Amino acid sequence: MSYIPRNLQVMWLLFTLFCCIPAILAYCGKTICERNQKRRIAKKLAQRGIRIDG
Q1: 7-24 per-position pLDDT tens digit
Q2: Residue 45: which residues within 8 A CB-CB, separation 6 or more?
Q3: Contact at 8 Å (CB) between 42 and 52?
């Protein structure tokens, strides 16, 4: 079974596009949001005279 039918390749490609890419984007978006939130909190604390490294 070295030959994979063409329609199976297309189905696999569509599956990858519709399942993996949104998951990756959601993960990246979540980490970016968390990073921005931490930065915002650090700024607020810095204004009050409290410092957080990172």
Answers
A1: 888 988 898 888 888 888
A2: 51, 52
A3: yes
Neighbours of 42 (CB within 10 A): 15
The maximal CA–CA distance of the chain, rounded, in angstroms, is 67
DSSP 3: P
Task: Return the structure tokens found at 47.
Answer: 């204004």
CA distance 47 to 27: 31
Rounded CA gap, 12 and 47, in Å? 52
Beta-carbon contacts of residue 51 (< 8 Å; ≥ 6 apart): 45
pTM: 0.45
